[in-house]
Write a structure and sequence with these properties.
single chain, alpha+beta, Jelly Rolls, Arc Repressor Mutant, subunit A, 2 domains, 4-stranded antiparallel sheet, 6 helices, 27% strand
Length: 202
C-alpha cells in the first residue's frame, strides 16, 4: 500500500466478485480507489466492440471519472475515497500529486503500448510481445492466463479463432507448450522476441 494513503481519511472498503463492475462511465460519484486484493481489467466499450487497455494489480490506483470500465476478473477488494479527499491532501502536500501522477502515468504508458501494437504490429507480433511481457516475473517461463481465450483475443485486437490458430502453431513450432489448465510455458523466447519486431500492422 502507498505511504501517502495513510494520510487520507478512512476510506470505504468494498469487495467485488469476479466478473462484477468496479467502475463504469457516467457514475456521478467521483472517487479514487486502490486494489487491496485481486485483479481488475480496464477496458473501453464501443457498441458491440470491447478493447482491453490494461490491468490493475494489488496496490493499483485508478479513478472513476474516465470513459473506461473497470471489471474484477477475480474476487477483488477495493478501498476508495471521494476525489475531494485526494485534492485536499494534494493541496496540503503537493508532492503527493507527483506520486499519484506517476501511478496514472504507468497506466497511460500501457495504453500507448497497446495503441502501438494495434497500429503497427501483426497479430502474431502482438501475441509474441504479450507472451514475453507476461514471463518477465516468471522463473521458468510459465504464464498463467487469468482470462479466457476470447478475452485475450479482444485484448490483442483479434478473433478467438485467429488467436487459437496462432497458439496452436506456436506449439507445433516448439515456441511454447501447454503447462496445465490456463497455463503456457515459453520454450524459445529468442524466436518470440524476434517476432515482436514485426511491425507490418497486419
Amino acid at each position: 500500500m502507498h505511504d501517502w494513503i495513510e494520510q487520507l481519511p478512512t476510506g470505504t472498503q468494498r469487495s467485488y466478485p469476479a466478473s462484477s463492475m468496479i467502475a463504469r462511465p457516467g457514475e456521478p460519484d467521483n472517487r479514487v480507489f486502490i486494489l487491496v486484493t485481486g485483479r481488475a481489467r480496464i477496458s473501453l466499450l464501443g457498441g458491440a466492440k470491447e478493447q482491453t487497455l490494461g490491468y490493475l494489480e494489488q496496490g493499483g490506483l485508478f479513478v472513476t471519472h474516465t470513459p473506461t470500465w473497470v471489471e474484477a476478473i477475480e474476487p477483488t477488494t477495493v478501498l476508495s475515497w471521494p476525489m475531494a479527499d485526494l485534492r485536499g491532501l494534494i493541496s496540503r502536500q503537493p508532492d503527493v500529486a507527483m506520486i499519484a501522477l506517476r501511478e496514472i502515468g504507468q497506466i497511460m504508458s500501457a495504453a500507448l503500448e497497446l495503441i502501438e501494437d494495434l497500429a503497427f504490429r501483426s497479430v502474431e507480433g502482438r501475441l509474441a510481445r504479450f507472451l514475453i511481457r507476461e514471463t518477465s516475473g516468471s522463473k521458468d517461463g510459465t504464464i498463467h492466463l487469468v482470462e479466457s481465450t476470447e478475452r485475450l483475443a479482444t485484448r490483442l485486437g483479434t478473433s478467438r479463432q485467429t488467436l487459437s490458430t496462432l497458439i496452436n502453431r506456436m506449439q507445433r513450432e516448439g515456441l511454447i507448450e501447454k503447462a496445465g489448465r490456463q497455463c503456457l510455458r515459453i520454450i524459445d523466447p529468442d524466436r518470440l522476441i524476434d517476432m515482436t519486431d514485426d511491425v507490418s500492422g497486419r
